[in-house]
Each structure stands twice: as C-alpha cells, then as structure tokens.
Amino acid sequence: MKEGDILGHEFTGKVMEVGSGVKTLKRGDRVVVAPNIGCGECFYCQEKEWSLCDNSNHKGNLQEKITGYPTGAFFGCSHLFGSYAGSHAEYIRVPYADHGCFKIPEELSYEQGLFASDAAPTGYMAADMAVMPGDVVAVWGAGAVGQMAIAGAWLKGASKVICIDKYKFRPNITRAYQKRGA
Ligand SMILES: [Zn+2]
Known about the structure:
CATH superfamily of the largest domain: Medium-chain alcohol dehydrogenases, catalytic domain
CATH class of the largest domain: Alpha Beta
Bound molecules: zinc ion
Distance between the termini: 38 Å
C-alpha cells in the first residue's frame, strides 16, 4: 500500500456515467459490484474463474514475485492486485463494467444488495464446498462472512450450526435472524 491509497472492495451505488464500450448499463442504474475485476474475455474469465483474469491486473509481475503466480485485479487491495482505487470514496471507476456490475432489483435496498458483492458469495461458497445435508457445522468467527456461512450451512441442510465468536453480540445477531426466519 502507498500513502493516499483508497481501500474498499465491497460496494453498491448508482451509475453516474458509462464508458463507450459499456453495453449493459446506463446512467441511473442501481448496481452491486463484485470485488474482483475480470475482463470477461480471457481464458479464465471464459471459464468463470474471474479472480484469475489474465488482463485486469497490470501489476501481476510484482505479485508473482511474492505468491509465485499472478491473480486478477481487485478493487482497493494494494498495488499487487492492480493498483485500482477502492470504494471508500464518493465515486469509483469500474473497469470492464459489463462483467462486474450487477443491477439491484427494485425491491431491494442498496444495503440488501451489498451482501451480494462479497460477504454472501464468500460465506455461501464455504458452505457449498463443505456442508452435506444433516451435518453438524461449526463456524469460527461470526462477522459478516461468518454469518453468511452460517446461513449457507442452513441452506445446505445442516442439522445443527455452532457459532463461535469472542464477541457475544455476534451469535446473538445470528439467533435473531433465525427467529425472524431469515
Ligand atoms: Zn479476464
């Protein structure tokens, strides 16, 4: 990171301008944006492996020295991931917007749409990879992603979910969701 870098990789917002190459969005659209940046056209993007995009991370050679291989770019995640400014700002530029911006349905608020950016897919993916119907599941850490993993475990048919967190209020939030049937 460098002084002045802008963090933030999960966000929603309203489209204020579109570039000439953008085909699926228009000014005024309400969107949720994926944290990883995929061009939509390279081998990996064609395989839906967006986080391995060959074209979005122009600093992949720097990253390769540390990790042994380059990944695609991410918003607000240092210069190793492409040097893209993050979302803790009033405006943000979204490259390859046709592939990373998703319209938020009218009935959902920005806050509800926000979960589709990162927390819900990350937590659900963990459950999808690990949980079989009837499993007893333990989730360590009930922050935003942990709570989505817990919800994912229920969706995958867990018989019991044990939530472990050093803060008492977090498991209580999860219990409150369960009571409301969410
Ligand atoms: Zn790509």
